[in-house]
Amino acid sequence: MKTKYIFVTGGVTSSLGKGIISASLGKLLQARGFKVSIQKLDPYINVDPGTLNPYEHGECYVTEDGAETDLDLGHYERFLSVSTSQANNVTTGRVYQSVINKERRGDYLGKTVQVIPHITDEIKRRILMLGRKQKLDMVITEIGGTVGDIESLPYIEAVRQLKWELGPSNVLYIHLTLVPFLSATGELKTKPTQHSVKELLENGIQPDILVLRTEHELNMDLRRKVASFCNVNLESVIQSINVSTIYEVPLLMQKEKLDISVLQKLNIPAKNKPGLELWKEFLKKLKKPRYKVRVALVGKYVELADSYKSINESFIHAGAVNDCAVEVKYVHSEEIFEDNLDECFEDIKGILVAPGFGDRGIDGKILAAKYAREKDIPFFGICLGLQCAVVEFARNVLGFEKAHSTEMERKTPYPVIDLMEEQKGILEKGGTMRLGAYPCRVKKDTKTFAAYNKDKVSERHRHRYEFNNKYLHAFEKAGMIATGINPQTNLVEIMEIRSNKWFVGVQFHPEYRSTVINPHPLFVNFIKATIS
Ligand code: GLN
After folding, report:
1. What is the pTM of this model?
2. What span, in angstroms and rounded, lies between the C-alpha atoms of 347 and 342?
3. Which of 140, 332, 410, 476 gives a 20 to 30 Å CA spacing to 359?
4. What SS3 class is residue 405?
């Protein structure tokens, strides 16, 4: 079978959940036995979102191969349990960068380099490359932004050309729009959808399938109206009604027969029924948990929950395994002081200190680690969270006055967290951190080992600073031990405080690896510790 290409565009407004629809469709096709990958095209000029503040664009997700990507790739991995890579996220910045590099190399000598055909060719090359390299049955490509945006035009034109080049049974367009409900008249309105499809038609694209986001059930009359005004058949008008959890969407899409509609249009017989048993089991536990715990997530980007997307989702996965609903209380690290700690952490059964950069809110994070250690509240420090726990331990247990990370205090007398050797000569900020998966050896008879139940693991990183091994002996003597070490470089990757119930800090990002089917063991055991 030739690789089939499915494009998902969005209309009317942003934030309708193209990523979730793409991931849900991917899940259904995968459950039928097809080899699928999902790609995101982002119309901004940053080469990758690694240099973006989380307030701008939510969390930056990191892949196994060290790409800093859009948070939608996290959804793709959490739904499909298949790794994405550098090739799964393409930005306008990256496309222009390669075209300009080729121009400088002389690849286009004699030619004027233009959006059409050079930029569109580069976009097409990156779409096709993913399917060919991984020998996929289907590539689902989500186009960021909303149809009608100036910056997404080259993408729309590129995917228009692909249908012509690859043939109609190899390319499919799904358009996701909104059907708003006017409470004053009690009506659902289809006009925005009609306009948005018209906009697509102006760009030469006739959508094959329409997915309509709605707060209320769409009746047959409304579906028929949309179908006739937008030139699609009735079965291709798919309702996507609001649900309480994103993990229900694959089942909703199955009920609406989105996968069958897609297969029909691509001329593929819809054999095997999707096997979604594990998924359904997870949902059942998620919806009727036996326990409930409140955990605090301490960070400085808490105003925007998307900044900690993967952590939030990891809590959901780990909660389900433990038959437990995890309620997350976001605690702003700039609002934690010596005299309000009890108030901040009232009724809290576990404290997670989040990743981050720079010194804004750092004192609050260090105080949170101290509070967890002294009160023996289960603690999970991720990346900067581990670094804060190390600084706190140095200052308050080892008596290293003014100990700090050199990221925050270059001249600290005790640089317990310091810039990695390989980072020292680096001046450019984009894509130059220690990124992607590295191996880690786990020490036996530790809480860490109890979670992983194996001694060789691999985890994804995104940082420049590390634990300063010069102080390791002092830490271990006082009870904070290194339980995970990189076997090649000796970098400390995991630390835990022996005497506490569950106090673990990791230099990597376990949240990027947690999926519905494979929840991350450290999250699972952290939640377990909060229940008992
Ligand atoms: N700022 C810290 C570093 O670069 C931690 C990074 C993070 O939390 N991702 O090492």
Report:
1. 0.94
2. 9
3. 476
4. strand
